[in-house]
Specification:
The complex is a heterodimer of chains A (472) and B (181). By secondary structure, chain A is mainly β. Chain A has one domain: Porin (Beta Barrel). Helix content of chain A is 14%, strand content 49%. Chain A is built from seven helices and 22 strands. Chain A has a 21-stranded antiparallel beta sheet that branches. Chain A is elongated. Chain B has 181 residues and is mainly beta. In chain B, the strands form three sheets. A four-stranded antiparallel beta sheet of chain B has the order 1-10-5-8. A four-stranded antiparallel beta sheet of chain B has the order 4-9-6-7. The model of chain B has no long low-confidence stretch (mean pLDDT 90). The chains are: A mainly beta (472), B mainly beta (181). Chains A and B meet through α1, α3, α4, α5 and β13 of A and α1, β1, β4 and β10 of B.
């Protein structure tokens, strides 16, 4: 119990809107910008990610409460602090954790001026909404809440561990418009979810009922879908589990397909608009699936004794096992091995970007052949960005204003200020260093809290090493 | 002398490197305890007065008895968590006789581990009488209660006849005071 609460508290203490990479979006210093917008403007000739180091992203967060709220060393009883925090939270509060590790990333410009790019990355994505009603029930019991309906729809969570293989192309189709499309193949290693649950549990006290209370489960339909888990239950030893799971990373798992689409439109010399939609896709879970479903209606009145006349050697009715059988009949719990499909959480990015300040990048007189009629490049850019992700209980959205500046050929920076439903104090900062062809980027957000992560609702960190070969 | 961008770089990198959890005490997790108070229906019955007299043999049947398993109360988990249990028995008697009622909690070897006893007042068909009995179980009795897995209810009438009418009704609930750490 303690461990669970501790883990919950830790998780609840870290983000806001997960997978928002507001610092790296529309920042051409890193090949990662092509993963955030396949239609980003690309200038380089080719790029190679340094295997396993080209891109790492970690992000975690919680709405409404921080680690500090619970674990601050303030002499107060932790149970009071938990109670206080839970009072302020509702079932739309959530915690998330996301991690991505790029294994391979590469790209090159073809003779026909397409920029092709591809790679493999591993992703872990987790979201759980606060199961408020059942935390309340577990913490306080039902005695003081006779008549309260505890909602099963408060149980909503999803976890995925998968590998993504992607290949895309990018083309400047007119002087002003760049489009990009990326195809993705997903290989799911482990997936578990419980969403769209319905039903209530209520204890009521009314006249005319057989016993003091009626404990009623009404309209129950709770489902937990798992894939990649069932086959691990019989496996001995962690090393075997690890090798089984890793095997699925390489197309051994449940497969899925998806795509990303993006565009950049250069409205004027200095103003451009970008948009992308990522992970429009589905994973088809067909092997090693296990679906647990409980559904039905039931009212429990307790055990009714009938006081039958017992002759010698006879026993009375098996009230208790009859009751158990009745509950199992009315609320059957089924385990199915059927296939199911699951949409990936789609993400939308959009931005409006304004370049200003000193022009850069080319010696006077050079032909800007790749940029005929396009936007000029300046040391500074400011703009606004929008991000949203589709989650089990709806869209989570965030808005960002930013300023980025190139200080020299080797250093660029970008600062962001992001507002979402849960935090209005998220300052992010990114830096990109170019040492010859070697590119290193580092980005983090919630910098106001970085001195004490415990106080942050969310945190994300991205870094990577790539080799970028500029246009000759 | 460092220029502005280099200073920024140093501040940014050093803040990430030195970033940590401050003024927090994660050992507090050991102090987390939850104390739910759960109320659940227990047993209920209606015993007709005729059950206290055997018309076939014309003999009084002074003790009526029934047994049910209550396996949910038996076990280490509940033993560790249960601080106190309170049983509330709500009798409504329309039989013009008082009763004594025994609740005997037995373990798997049918040894009595915990017992409780109450008197139920006589009532009448026109004016049923309610008797509420609350039995509080705590301290070392919890150990006895939670090593039981069935309960025997014995309802004893002082005397009986074929002319006895009415019903003895019981509704009951249990309040479990739990402490889970």
């Amino acid at each position: 119990m303690k461990k669970i609460l501790f883990a919950l508290a830790i998780c609840y203490s870290i983000i806001a809107v997960s997978q928002n990479k507001q610092v790296l979006y529309n920042w051409d210093v890193s090949p990662q910008s092509l993963l955030l917008n396949p239609g980003a403007v690309v200038d380089q000739k080719h790029h190679y990610g340094i295997p396993f180091l080209s891109g790492f992203h970690i992000n975690g967060g919680t709405s409404g409460v921080t680690v500090f709220d619970i674990f601050s060393d303030d002499g107060r009883d932790i149970n009071d602090k938990i109670a206080e925090a839970l009072t302020a939270l509702d079932s739309n509060d959530f915690f998330t954790a996301t991690q991505q590790l790029e294994l391979i990333n590469f790209g090159w410009r073809s003779k026909s001026d397409y920029y092709f790019s591809g790679g493999i990355y591993q992703e872990f994505d987790f979201i759980s909404y606060l199961p408020k009603d059942f935390l309340d029930l577990a913490r306080e019991g039902n005695r003081d809440y006779i008549g309260r309906a505890y909602n099963f729809d408060h149980i909503s969570l999803r976890a995925d561990l998968l590998t993504v293989y992607h290949f895309g192309f990018n083309k400047k189709v007119t002087d002003k418009l760049t489009l990009g499309l990326r195809f993705k193949a997903y290989s799911s290693m482990i997936s578990a979810s419980s969403t769209g649950n319905t039903g209530t549990f209520t204890t009521t006290q009314n006249d005319g009922t057989p016993n003091i209370y009626e404990h009623t489960v009404e309209g129950l339909n709770v489902e937990v879908k798992t894939s990649g888990y069932a086959s691990l239950k019989d496996v001995d030893g962690s090393s075997q589990i690890v090798s089984d799971v890793l095997g699925r990373a390489f197309f051994g798992g449940n497969l899925g397909l998806g795509f990303d689409f993006g565009a950049t439109y250069e409205i004027t010399n200095q103003l451009s608009a970008t948009a992308s939609i990522l992970d429009i896709g589905t994973i088809f879970h067909s092997s090693a699936t296990e679906i647990y479903n409980a559904s039905g209606n039931y009212t429990l009145d307790g055990l009714e004794l009938l006081f039958p006349t017992i002759e010698n050697g006879e026993t009375t009715f098996p009230y208790y096992s009859d009751l158990e059988d009745e509950i199992e009949r009315e609320i059957p719990v089924d385990t199915l091995n059927s296939a199911y499909s699951q949409m990936r959480p789609a993400k939308i990015n959009a931005g409006l970007h304004y370049d200003f300040g000193e022009s850069i990048g080319r010696k006077s007189g050079d032909c800007d052949c790749r940029n005929m009629g396009g936007k000029s490049q300046h040391v500074s850019q400011a703009g606004i960005q929008y991000y949203s992700v589709f989650r089990p209980k709806g869209i989570q959205a965030a808005g960002t204003v930013y300023y980025r500046r190139r200080f020299s050929n080797w250093l660029s920076t970008k600062a962001t200020y992001t507002v979402d439903s849960y935090s209005a104090s998220n300052i992010g900062l990114g830096m990109a260093l170019n040492i010859g062809s070697l590119n290193f980027h580092l980005a983090a957000d919630n910098l106001l809290d970085i001195a004490n992560i415990a106080k942050a609702n969310s945190l994300s960190l991205q870094f990577g090493f790539n080799i970028i070969v500029e246009e000759l | 002398m460092m220029k502005y961008p280099q200073i920024l770089l140093v501040i940014f990198l050093s803040s990430i490197v030195t970033s940590c959890f401050q003024n927090t005490d994660f050992d507090q997790a050991n102090d987390v305890v939850i104390t739910p108070v759960v109320e659940l229906d227990l047993i209920y019955f209606d015993i007709d007065a005729s059950q206290f007299y055997d018309v076939e043999t014309n003999t009084p049947n002074l003790v009526v008895r029934d047994t049910t398993a209550i396996e949910f109360i038996d076990g280490n988990d509940i033993r560790d968590a249960l601080v106190r249990a309170e049983f509330l028995f709500d009798f409504t008697n329309s039989i013009p006789s008082n009763f004594s009622v025994n609740f005997d909690f037995l373990n798997t070897n049918n040894e009595v581990r915990y017992s409780s006893f109450t008197q139920v007042n006589a009532g009448s068909a026109s004016l049923p009488v309610e008797t509420i009995y609350i039995d509080n179980v705590e301290n070392e009795e919890i150990e006895n209660l939670t090593s039981s897995n069935k309960v025997v209810i014995s309802v004893t009438i002082p005397s009986s006849s074929s002319s006895l009418f009415g019903t003895l009704n019981l509704k009951s609930k249990a309040t479990y005071y739990l402490e889970i750490d």
